[in-house]
Task: inverse folding
């Protein structure tokens, strides 16, 4: 008698468990009905092996390497948000983003994976958006299947056939504008054996930006279509903002670590000459492909392309990450930092740590004199001695290249400044020459010169005043003080030649 | 007694949601020649648009409320899901109640094409066609062709750069354009009758020569004016829509045939 | 002992109760994902007045109670529409006989001006369609626009009287709810075929 009751009881228990299980499944069906978009019932996918929800990261972070040895179904949810964010100090821009920031989220999958891609367009968006992933083999890279109005979601599925580091971007008309507003990111498709082990991985993406206002002009700056067409970038930036990888946001590593950078270039227009000052790339998987080059100083990253660079940091310090089309670094913001801590290795490098002052294009052997002149000017206590001291430093940094540090110039090439009759005869003219430059025949101390002095109008008014005060009082010249106000007045009156910096 | 009857009649009519259209509501637009940014057929670079009437202002929350009250099939809790998605009038406090997020003088948004069409039909009007809307929108302050006026395109493009989160201003602000129509730019996207008449695929880059098979009878499309990015963006936006969609920044206004100011 | 028996019976009953499918329409969404997410309501919510190829006034729901393949076309169409009709006929051929007997086809013309019932009937004859199960319909312009909007079909009338239009075949269940869509000409019509076969086995309301 007893065993039969136990069996019955067990059967009842099994039935209850099954019933509960079925209840859960059918509840999911019921709740998913009538909702847009519908989600697949758990039972339908359970038999294929559980799909993996992709872990997406914001730059400069990268999702962890893939450890599974088999392809899987990976589900990606990526949300488009149109957001106003700072692009530079005091400057705001209306970015269109994949995931709330520029660049978009980093997606990491494995070759052979089946990716179920959900593109969501936030209800607050004004524009429709879609996505073209360069990793997709299929029409438009997914763009035709993912065109999504605000407040809606699209889905498509693709198989990651090829390994590599691929750009993704929005491809909605006008495409250039969508990309220029920041709609790009990277998707990594790992080869089946994975990538070699490194200690740190970083995600960097370069982009060019076009605003109506000038570089660093404050306020909310709208997109400038004409500049984009003319390829006259206002900003060239890593990770969507000036200073995104600078100071306390710098990338960090330790001496001895192997570093890998996944570097993308969203464009829309410019090609990058990617370089890390003070480092040589041990390996570059050029164009994000399967082969690598070794011992590379600077690598080209096409617009809409990528590269993987690997190097080992041997020596502590701050390594500056640049686009070696160098005006972009110093005048448009394409500058980042990698700060490496750890014990020094004097055999490899013995110098000092580079800090922010290095970056000033007017840096000289000592900035102290320049700094104190600047602050004295502000306070209104600037005297001629301070000006001369600052002017000397500035002269050494800029003018001595041609006129030599002793003011002697180069015979038949560059006129002297020391005891120069041409210089001392006319104070107003000397200001104009510094601003406008000078070319054509000129007689100095009885000798003929016919050379070209470029305009130095990129110097500030107080800097020009300090330099002129110095040269007019050095090497036996008996001169007087020139004030910043005089330079300002002169600058306003004259016409700068074409090409001179404003 | 007679006064009471008249008042009752007026109230009944008002409740039925059939206000008389006043002549000042609409303005005559056109006739004119439109240069569409996307050639509708190979070799076709212009579209003739006959004169038509267009609402001077977009339809407001207040106006739409009186429509929904008189036509309860269009309440958000009763509308068929094939005619409107989940976002339909979501910003209203209730099915027939506006609330603080939907002030009566703001342009009504989160309405589907079907709802907008039904509203216009109930007013004895219709939705404007895309060509009609674009003709009206091409006008600047002082001429039918705003592209010649400095700053016209820039102002429009600046709107697309601002996110849609800010509260919508009331209708009626800004300058009336050459035709006397306001708020065609800078306020909300607007539905048109033939929003689904441009055969572009979701991938905007393949549009240069549309496939013959998915889109019957097409040849090579060429974009009419590559510089007119505002029109491009409107085209892209419309082609992302389905008739039941609603979005936060999408409203509408009504149109009518002919040049006579009222019916 | 008796308590255990009651528990067992209760458990079995619970299992039996929850094993029954929910009373709403069967959920094919996970299969339809390949084509497009179906709407949760019926296209027959649109009350429209059309005329079929025999001149009879009908609504859009003329084949309600049957699964329906619905699309839009026009009789003078040179390229895609003959292929569209061929596609529909091929889908029919690939169906088992009992499903085919139940299936209906609706084609709505985007060209009411030229596609009179006579023209539509002539086309039906020329293409050898099974007129007992196919409806070729004509509707006024405004209704055509609404049906196209419902089915997600784009079209434009050109100056020469021809039309540009997208080719989309939509599968409706017997209640007019969209089960699957196939865009473009040519197969394979995987999503449509799969949903057709499931539509047959589902209990009908």
Result:
């Amino acid at each position: 008698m007893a065993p039969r009751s136990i069996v019955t009881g067990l059967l009842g228990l099994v039935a209850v468990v099954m019933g509960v299980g079925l209840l859960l499944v059918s509840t999911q069906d019921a709740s998913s009905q009538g909702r847009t978009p519908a989600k697949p019932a758990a039972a339908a996918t359970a038999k294929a092996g559980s799909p993996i929800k992709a872990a997406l990261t914001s730059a400069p972070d990268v999702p962890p390497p893939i450890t599974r040895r088999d392809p899987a179904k990976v589900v990606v949810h990526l949300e488009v948000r149109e957001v106003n964010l700072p692009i530079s100090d005091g400057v705001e821009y209306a970015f269109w983003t994949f995931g709330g920031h520029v660049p978009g989220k980093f997606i990491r999958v494995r070759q052979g994976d089946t990716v179920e891609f959900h593109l969501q367009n936030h209800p607050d968006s004004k524009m429709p958006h879609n996505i073209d992933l360069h990793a997709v083999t299929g029409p438009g890279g997914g763009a035709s299947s993912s065109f999504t109005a605000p407040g809606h979601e699209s889905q498509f599925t693709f198989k990651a056939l090829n390994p590599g580091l691929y750009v993704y971007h929005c491809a909605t008309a006008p495409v250039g504008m969508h990309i220029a507003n920041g709609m790009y990111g990277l998707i990594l498709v790992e080869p089946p054996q994975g990538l070699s082990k490194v200690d740190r991985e970083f995600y960097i993406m370069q982009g060019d930006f076009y605003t109506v206002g000038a570089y660093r002009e404050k306020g909310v700056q709208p997109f400038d279509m004409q500049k984009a067409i003319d390829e006259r970038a206002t900003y060239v930036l890593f990770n969507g903002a000036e200073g995104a990888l600078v100071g306390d946001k710098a990338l960090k590593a330790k001496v001895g670590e192997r570093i890998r950078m996944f570097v993308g270039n969203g464009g829309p227009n410019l090609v990058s000459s990617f370089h890390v000052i003070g480092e040589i790339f041990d390996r570059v998987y050029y164009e994000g492909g399967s082969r690598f080059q070794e011992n590379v100083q600077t690598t080209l990253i096409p617009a809409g392309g990528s590269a993987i660079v690997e190097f080992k940091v041997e020596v502590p310090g701050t390594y500056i990450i640049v686009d070696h089309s160098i005006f972009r670094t110093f005048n448009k913001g394409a500058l980042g930092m990698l700060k490496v801590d750890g014990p020094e290795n004097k055999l490899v490098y013995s110098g000092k740590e580079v800090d922010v002052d290095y970056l000033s294009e007017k840096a000289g052997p000592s900035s102290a004199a320049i700094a104190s002149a600047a602050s004295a000017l502000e306070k209104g206590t600037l005297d001629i001695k301070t000006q001369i001291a600052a002017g000397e430093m500035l002269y050494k940094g800029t003018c001595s290249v041609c006129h030599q540090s002793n003011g002697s110039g180069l015979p038949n090439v560059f006129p002297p400044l020391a005891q120069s009759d041409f210089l001392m005869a006319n104070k107003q003219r000397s200001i104009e020459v510094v601003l406008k430059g000078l070319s054509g025949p000129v007689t100095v101390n009885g000798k003929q010169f016919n050379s070209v002095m470029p305009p130095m109008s990129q110097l500030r008014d107080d800097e020009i005043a300090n330099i002129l005060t110095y040269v007019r009082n050095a090497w036996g010249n008996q001169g007087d003080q020139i004030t910043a106000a005089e330079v300002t007045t002169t600058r306003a009156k004259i016409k700068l030649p074409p090409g001179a910096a404003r | 007694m007679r006064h009471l009857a008249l008042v009752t009649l007026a109230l009944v009519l008002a409740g039925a949601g059939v206000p008389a259209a006043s002549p000042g509501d609409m303005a005559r637009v056109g006739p004119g020649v439109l240069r569409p940014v996307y050639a509708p057929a190979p070799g076709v670079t212009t579209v003739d648009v006959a004169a038509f009437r267009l609402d001077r202002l977009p339809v407001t929350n207040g106006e739409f409320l009186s429509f929904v009250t008189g036509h309860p099939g269009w309440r958000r809790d009763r509308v068929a899901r094939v005619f409107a998605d989940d976002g339909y009038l979501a910003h209203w406090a209730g099915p027939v109640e506006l609330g603080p997020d939907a002030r009566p003088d703001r342009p009504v948004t989160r309405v589907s094409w079907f709802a907008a069409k039904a509203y216009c039909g109930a007013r004895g009007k219709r939705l404007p066609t895309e060509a009609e809307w674009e003709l009206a929108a091409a006008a600047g302050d002082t001429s039918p062709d705003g592209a010649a006026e400095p700053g016209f395109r820039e102002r429009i493009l600046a709107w697309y750069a601002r996110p849609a989160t800010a509260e919508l201003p009331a209708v009626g602000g800004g300058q009336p354009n050459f035709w006397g129509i306001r708020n065609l730019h800078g306020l909300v996207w607007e539905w048109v009758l033939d929003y689904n008449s441009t055969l572009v695929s979701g991938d905007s880059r393949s549009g240069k020569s549309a496939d013959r098979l998915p889109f019957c009878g097409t040849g090579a499309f060429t974009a009419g004016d590559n510089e007119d990015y505002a029109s491009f963006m409107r085209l892209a936006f419309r082609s992302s829509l389905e008739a039941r969609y609603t979005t936060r920044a999408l409203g509408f206004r009504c149109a009518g045939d002919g040049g006579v100011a009222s019916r | 002992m008796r308590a255990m028996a009651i528990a067992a019976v209760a458990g079995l009953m619970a299992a039996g109760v929850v094993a029954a499918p929910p009373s709403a329409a069967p959920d094919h969404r996970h299969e339809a994902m390949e084509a497009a997410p179906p709407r949760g309501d019926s296209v027959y919510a649109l009350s429209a007045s059309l005329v079929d190829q025999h001149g009879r006034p009908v609504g859009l729901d003329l084949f309600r109670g049957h699964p329906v393949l619905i699309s839009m076309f026009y009789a003078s169409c040179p390229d895609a529409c003959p292929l569209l009709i061929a596609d529909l006929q091929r889908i029919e051929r690939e169906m088992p006989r009992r499903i085919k007997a139940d299936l209906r086809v609706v084609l709505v013309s985007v060209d009411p001006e030229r596609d009179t019932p006579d023209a539509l009937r002539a086309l039906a004859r020329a293409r050898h369609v099974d007129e007992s199960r196919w409806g070729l319909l004509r509707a006024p312009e405004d209704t055509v626009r609404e049906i196209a909007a419902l089915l997600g079909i784009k079209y434009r009338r050109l100056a020469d009287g021809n039309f540009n239009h997208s080719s989309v075949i939509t599968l409706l269940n017997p209640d007019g709810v969209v089960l699957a869509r196939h865009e473009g000409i040519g197969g394979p019509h995987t999503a449509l075929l799969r949903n057709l076969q499931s539509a047959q086995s589902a209990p009908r309301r």
Summary: Chain A is about 25% helix and 30% strand. Chain A touches chain B at residues 34-36, 82-84, 94, 123-128, 130, 132, 139-140, 143-152, 171-175, 177, 181, 212, 222-223, 225 (CB under 8 Å). Confidence is low (pLDDT under 50) at residues 14-48, 353-365 of chain A.
